Amino acid sequence: MSTQFSTKERILGAAEELFAQQGFGATSLRQVTSRADVNIAAVNYHFGSKENLVNEVFRRRMDDMSDHRLSMLNDARAQRPGELEAILAAFVEPALALAAGRNGGGAFIRVIARAYAEQNDGLRGFLSERYGHVQREFARAIADCVPGLAKEQLYWRLDFLGGALTYAMADFGLIRRPPGVDEQTHRRRAAEELIRFAAAGFRS
Amino acid sequence: MSTQFSTKERILGAAEELFAQQGFGATSLRQVTSRADVNIAAVNYHFGSKENLVNEVFRRRMDDMSDHRLSMLNDARAQRPGELEAILAAFVEPALALAAGRNGGGAFIRVIARAYAEQNDGLRGFLSERYGHVQREFARAIADCVPGLAKEQLYWRLDFLGGALTYAMADFGLIRRPPGVDEQTHRRRAAEELIRFAAAGFRS
DNA sequence: GTCTATATAGTGATAGAC
DNA sequence: GTCTATCACTATATAGAC
Asked: One Pfam family for this entry, by name (chains A, B) (predicted)?
């Protein structure tokens, strides 16, 4: 085994960091290949085009996070049926794990935030087509926990949860990690607070 | 009086729409001046640089929205003291009014969302320096309504509110405006739902 | 205040040697 | 699989005529 990263992996990692900092449009392939310390032609060899590279950057992490969410959701339904907080934890904690992880996880959360803001190109469609079933699973699970909730109200509140989660995980807001607290503890605190806040909101 | 827009105003309007659609980095001054139907050199004459144009696009609307928020907050505190929902309405509804307004208001909300995602350049600092006092006013007002709330918890929840608001106003989520409902009604519904959701969260 | 023309640099992508 | 060299374009910014 080897601790080396392949050219392809180095390109993906560098692209992820730069996309998060500057956006897709503002990030040039030359910046990416320079940071990855590979030749400019390598990105076209491995990915074909810049747009394809953007999609690969997403797929790599989102697939993992979606699987993580669905497996936690199944556990929650099996072991703690009818408990809203467990469902919300299955939604929130994989995002937290991603954001707190090494290898630019925090950067990736900002990439997601950007993806939503870039509403015109095919990226949003790509995300909703590929991961829409995850959202629908959670909608069903939450509806089972809050029986009287109207469908439209459920969807509004899911949107609020998604927004609050994205915002908090990306460190957009007022809250900054205090000096004495490590990253993982800080993220865990965020998850606890959000689950409590959202649970009250869904039940109101 | 005239219904004409000046060159400067046309540049600002076109820039706002394009920034919202594509981001700052990906939007060229040529796109801006082409849409505004002005010469490419005009933007440098009126704004000096692209970065300055970006700042002006923000300032123009954020100043109005912040004033609107503070005036509604003062009214709420005077007329409906201690009522959390009135405070939240003062925070949420000016954003809604902006998003529902003509002249690319919906686009502008996405510009704000982008500003938060672009964490590296000076834009975030510019926003927090210029509008931080508004956030602090609302923090104080909400704290007065929910006396037992710890300061840290209050800030977490303010972040959740901000995230949910941004996300919902920008139409990022699952909820789409139904065909029979006009834009303004849809936005008003969003505000009502969010105020209810957040009020329950703050009180939990 | 608006225009044309242009300086200077960076862009994505590709061809072809190794 | 990686390299150099280069193509055709576009970018921001500015100089100077009107």
From this structure: TetR_C_30
Q: Decide if A26 is inside a domain.
A: no
pLDDT at res. A28: 92
Distance from CA of B201 to the nearest CA of A (A): 4
Query: Which of the residues A16, A19, A54, A118 would you substitute to probe the B interface, choosing the one with the greatest number of B C-beta atoms within 10 Å?
Result: A118
CA pair distance B11, B27, nearest whole angstrom: 13
For Cα atoms B88, A110, B169, give the angle at the middle one, nearest 5 degrees: 35
Cβ contacts of B26 on chain A, cutoff 8 Å: 23-26
Asked whether residue A50, judged by its CB, lies under 7 Å from any atom of the DNA or RNA strand C, the reply is yes
C1' of C3 to CA of A40 (Å): 39
- Which residue of B lies nearest to A170 if distances are taken between CA atoms? B117
Question: What is the domain count for chain A?
Answer: 1
Check if B126 contacts A (Cβ < 8 Å): no
Q: Is residue B123 within 8 Å of residue B115, measured between CB atoms?
A: yes
**Mean pLDDT value across residues B80-90:** 97
Q: Which residue has the higher pLDDT, A99 or A172?
A: A99
Cβ of B90: how many Cβ atoms within 10 Å?
A: 22
> In the structure, how far is the CA atom of residue B54 from the C1' atom of nucleotide D17, in angstroms?
30
What is the rounded CA–CA span in Å between residue B3 and residue A196? 51
Which among A163, A170, A198 has the least Cβ separation from residue B173? A163
List the CATH number of the domain containing B123. 1.10.357.10
A163–B164 C-beta distance less than 8 A: yes
Residue B103 is assigned to a structural domain of this protein: yes
Of A25, A119, A200, the CB nearest to B25: A25
Contacts of B11 (CB under 8 A, 6+ apart): B32, B33, B36, B38, B42, B43, B46, B47, B53
End-to-end Cα spacing for chain A: 53
Quote the tokens at residue B30.
Answer: 């040529």
Residue A88's domain comprises 54-203
Read off the pLDDT of residues A33-81 as tens digits, 9 standing for 90 and up. Answer: 999 999 999 999 999 999 889 889 888 888 989 999 999 999 999 999 9
The one-letter amino acid at B173:
G
Question: Is B132 contained in some domain?
Answer: yes
Examine residue B66 and state whether it is found in any structural domain, yes or no.
yes
Q: Report pLDDT digits (tens) over A4-21.
A: 788 999 999 999 988 877
